[in-house]
UniProtKB/TrEMBL annotation:
Name of the featured protein: Cytochrome P450
InterPro entries per UniProt: Cyt_P450 (IPR001128), Cyt_P450_B (IPR002397), Cyt_P450_CS (IPR017972), Cyt_P450_sf (IPR036396)
Family of the protein in this entry: Belongs to the cytochrome P450 family.
Organism (species): Erythrobacter mangrovi
GO MF annotations in UniProt: heme binding; iron ion binding; monooxygenase activity; oxidoreductase activity, acting on paired donors, with incorporation or reduction of molecular oxygen
Length: 416
């Protein structure tokens, strides 16, 4: 972590740049604004945005330090939670607060995370490997060669939704609902529209009712799935309906979007860097490192948000109690001080694992190993078949500054 001497950043030298605008992401034009911020305003006060005023933090070391100080920079839902969307002082019309353990501070966060974390431990993930390999191999063997199809729909969504269904022991024939609920749960642009928020609330209520029914079933016949783990724990067995729904959103969005959009980035990103793709095809031993590099390059969640708990001038600028602080992982993962030529994919990048895509500190993604397993398995099974993904059209991107991903990606497969 950065030392005290390294933390002070220069004052902003440019006018505020609002990088929360959805146009930057749907049009894929976010790189230059963030480069400007890293160079001229690594910590900048943005007085106006669709989401209200916020501090924009765009470089690696301050983000890492903020993540390591949860008492000073809170994640709690009571103060706005983990995304730029909410303001505790100005509740949105039709807003329903949904606590979740990633949007809690210790000790509540600690107890709930400890409940869920063992389900994603090394031995548990190792037990998943054979089943993940089987599902991935079976899916790849159904894909057409030389014909155009949507990689997001046919591969990324199918594999990640299948994994979620297994983790929750969710009815397999209804697994598509998990994708739908995830999309609504992570859509912060929908939150800005009162009617959209009503629709989102309805979808998440539908999700809560479906999982409440599963909860009742598991009371009498618990298994090893995440619902059974929660209901058998002291920290989570008596959750309110709002907290239950909140934690479901966390686990479903976290388990879905990170992996889904990294799988899509594998297809899209390597097509943008054919020399790196060729390097990976020639040397499959690079797959573990390439997985980390793809996750860094994509950064499936563009930001996390914290709230200042007391006035501080730790970084130079004075941050006031109650201020919203937005940590732009998507920019930190391209910080020139950490990653040489960070805009490029380098499958053999020596420090790819230093990415912040999974966060840092007490809130580091609890399911990171599962995401890595799924992506590693996909690359491994593609290599076994000597299959290459050829992008044949521009992707349709998610129009938002939180989930950084792809809605559609037209591709064709070929052999190499």
């Amino acid at each position: 972590m950065a030392t005290a001497a390294e933390l002070t950043v220069k004052s902003a030298e440019i006018d505020p740049i609002d990088v929360s605008r959805k146009e930057l992401y749907v049009e894929d034009t976010w790189r230059e604004p963030f480069r400007q911020l890293r160079q001229h305003a690594p910590i900048q006060w943005v007085p106006e945005s669709h989401f209200g005023p916020y501090w924009s933090v765009s470089t690696y070391k301050p983000i890492q330090h903020i993540e390591a100080l949860p008492k000073l920079f809170s994640s709690s839902w009571e103060y706005g939670g983990i995304s730029i969307a909410f303001d505790p002082e100005k509740p949105l019309e039709n807003e329903v607060r949904q606590p979740m353990f990633i949007a809690m501070d210790p000790p509540h966060h600690t107890a709930q995370r400890r409940t869920v974390a063992p389900s994603f431990g090394p031995s548990e993930v190792a037990e998943m490997k054979a089943e993940v390999q089987q599902r991935t191999a079976a899916l790849l063997d159904t894909l057409p060669i030389g014909e155009t199809f949507d990689w997001v729909e046919k591969v990324s969504i199918e594999l990640t939704t299948g994994m979620l269904a297994k983790l929750f022991d969710f009815p397999w024939e209804e697994r598509h609902k998990l994708t739908e609920w995830s999309d609504f749960g992570g859509d912060i642009e929908l939150i800005r529209d009162p009617d959209g928020l009503i629709l989102r609330n309805a979808k998440l209520q539908e999700m809560g009712m479906a999982f409440a029914a599963l909860w009742q079933q598991r009371l009498n016949a618990p298994g090893k799935d995440l619902i059974s783990v929660m209901l058998q724990s002291e920290a989570m067995k008596d959750m309110s309906p709002e907290e239950f729904i909140g934690n479901l959103i966390l686990l479903i969005v976290g388990g879905n979007d990170t992996t889904r959009n990294s799988m899509s980035a594998y297809a899209y990103g390597l097509s943008q860097f054919p020399d790196e793709r060729a390097k990976l095809e020639a040397d499959p031993s690079l797959i573990p490192n390439a997985v980390q590099e793809i996750i860094r390059w994509q950064t499936p969640l563009a930001h996390m948000r914290r709230t200042v708990m007391e006035d501080t001038d730790m970084f130079g600028p004075m941050m006031k109690k109650g201020d919203k602080v937005v940590l732009w992982y998507i920019s930190a993962n391209r910080d020139e001080e950490i990653f040489d030529d960070g805009e490029a994919i380098k499958v053999d990048r020596h420090n790819a694992r230093r990415h912040l895509s999974f966060g840092y500190g007490i809130h580091r993604c609890v399911g990171a190993r599962v995401a890595e397993l799924q992506l590693h398995t996909l690359l491994e099974e593609m290599a076994k078949r000597r299959l290459r993904v050829n992008v044949v059209g521009e992707p349709d991107r998610v129009p938002a500054c939180f989930v950084h991903g792809y809605k559609h990606l037209p591709v064709q497969l070929s052999y190499y």
